[in-house]
Amino acid sequence: MNGNNQCITLSVVMPAYNEGNSIQNNLLATSDVLSSFLRHYEIIAVNDGSIDNTAEEISVAAVKDNHILSDGYQENQGKGHAITHGIATAHGKYIAFLDADLELSPKLLKNFMKLMKKENADIVIGSKQHPDSKLDYPLIRRVMSRGYYIMLKLLFKLNIHDTQTGIKLFKSEVIKPIAQTITTNGYAFDIEILLSASKKGYKIVEAPIELNYSRDDNANGRRIKIKDIIKVFKDTLSIRKKYKHL
User: Fold this and answer.
1) Does residue 1 carry a pLDDT above 70?
2) Backbone angles phi, psi at 198, to 5 degrees
3) 20 to 30 A Cα–Cα from 158, which one of 60, 68, 135, 245?
4) pTM (predicted TM-score)
């Protein structure tokens, strides 16, 4: 593996559900990018109960590259659960989340790490609303994202413009204790993490991203659907109830 786990600079947690067609290549591509600016890193690929060949493809990638760790379980639990599961085994000084489809490039993490040090931040999150972000993104998704931001602002007074972009960087000592308290397993888990961090006084900085949207094909059943959106809103209201007294 990477030798002494205590020397690992960055752990990247990549949750995967029915990503069998691309996960092996995406993991190897991520490792290739990380190796260009880091010596000690690990990629924790968490198979979230996929019903295709995702688990097998992750295992093959792990054999090809010893920076890649194969993890997961048989029953689908949701993206939030997959990420908190990965956090529990991460050894890095810093821990990042990255979507397995690589619509967001792992190259962004180099700038995120620089920004974290420059701003003395505890958390750096990708933001579609950042003025320097470059987006290839459908209008309907932009409208939904803006509407959700307004909802979060009203519910939580959270001074963050975009909670849902699938790339985030944390100091390990910040995210590990928070992850142990997270009860949201679905897509709204980001909100609970960031709300908890904000309540604890941690500094959160938003960073620009480049996004190449490729989620129009729902054939394999892994993309966000109406039922997922409804669940996000339900989970958001549950988070509000959980944290309203804090």
Assistant:
1) no
2) -65, -40
3) 135
4) 0.85
